[in-house]
């Protein structure tokens, strides 16, 4: 009786990140489409990178062949080396286009933009030493695609930094012992600064207002873990116990409906 009900901080972080994650996913899709539109002919693989024979049990690799020794034709050797460099760069671009996010802290669109930005800069530097029409076309395609979503990226990068700062404020590791009221005051001071700084940007203002509203809704139960010794900040471990219980009851009974009835009837004893 009288026990305080604490809210899960992991769920709080995921909820404030949801609008950002949705916008990030939209940017990622648009960026990927634009890259494939502008440089699809270059980045599309023209040969199988892992040759082999498809068997029932998987892919049986081809025998390893000894590399041919080059005798007396340095031009051909240079061309092969250049082709290897270009293939490696294209392979990296193809990989970046397949990234998937994991909110609240890993945003695939942001990660894809930054990875492609690094590739565009790398290719631009390489062109100065190794002029190649494929690299020129790749650099132009990447630059055009990045410029098409740059404004969206700048806003999302700023909001992602907010999420990281909020997580750091809530994290007690490496900090002096704080009360729930102190953490609450620190968090809302940060959010008020965010609201003030984002006034001139409609997109940032919308994200800031959403984060502030969600935080206000969570505030009554978000800070109890700092005042109650041993109270966890998240309920991930407890949810894991319920998932294991569901799996065990399904294995032992074989009936989905039985699981719910057993949990409702004797769930606490099953967990114990």
Written account of the structure:
The protein is mainly alpha-helical and 272 residues long. The chain has nine helices and two strands, in the order αββαααααααα. It has helices spanning 9-43, 74-96, 108-129, 133-148, 150-170, 180-197, 202-222, 236-253, 256-271, and strands at 52-55, 58-61. It has a two-stranded antiparallel ribbon. Helix 3 runs antiparallel to helix 4 (133-148) and helix 5 packs antiparallel against helix 6 (180-197). The protein starts with 8 loop residues before the first helix and ends with a helix. The model has no long low-confidence stretch (mean pLDDT 85).
Biggest sheet features: 2 strands, antiparallel
Give the H and E element order: HEEHHHHHHHH
Mean pLDDT: 85
Radius of gyration: 26 Å
Note poorly predicted spans: none
How far is it from the N-terminal to the C-terminal residue, by CA?
A: 21 Å
Morphology call: extended
């Amino acid at each position: 009786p009288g026990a305080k009900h604490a809210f899960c901080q992991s769920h709080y972080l995921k909820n404030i990140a949801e609008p950002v994650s949705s916008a990030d996913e939209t940017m990622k899709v648009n960026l990927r489409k634009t890259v494939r539109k502008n440089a699809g002919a270059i980045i599309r693989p023209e040969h199988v990178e892992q040759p082999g024979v498809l068997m029932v049990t998987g892919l049986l690799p081809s025998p390893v062949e000894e590399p041919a020794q080059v005798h007396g034709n340095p031009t051909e050797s240079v061309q092969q080396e250049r082709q290897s460099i270009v293939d490696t760069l294209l392979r990296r671009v193809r990989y970046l286009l397949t990234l998937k996010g994991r909110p609240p802290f890993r945003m695939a669109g942001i990660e894809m933009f930054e990875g492609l930005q690094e590739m565009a800069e790398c290719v631009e530097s390489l062109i100065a030493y190794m002029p190649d029409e494929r690299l020129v076309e790749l650099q132009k395609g990447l630059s055009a695609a990045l410029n098409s979503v740059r404004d969206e990226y700048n806003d999302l990068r700023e909001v992602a930094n907010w999420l990281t700062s909020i997580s750091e404020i809530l994290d007690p590791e490496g900090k002096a012992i704080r009360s729930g009221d102190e953490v609450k005051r620190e968090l809302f001071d940060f959010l008020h600064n965010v609201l003030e700084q984002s006034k001139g940007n409609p997109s940032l203002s919308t994200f800031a207002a959403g984060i502030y509203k969600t935080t206000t809704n969570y505030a009554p139960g978000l800070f109890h873990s700092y005042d109650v010794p041993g109270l966890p900040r998240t309920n991930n471990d407890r949810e894991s116990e319920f998932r294991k219980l569901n799996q065990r009851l399904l294995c032992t009974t074989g009936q989905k409906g039985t699981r719910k009835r057993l949990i409702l009837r004797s769930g606490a004893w099953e967990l114990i």
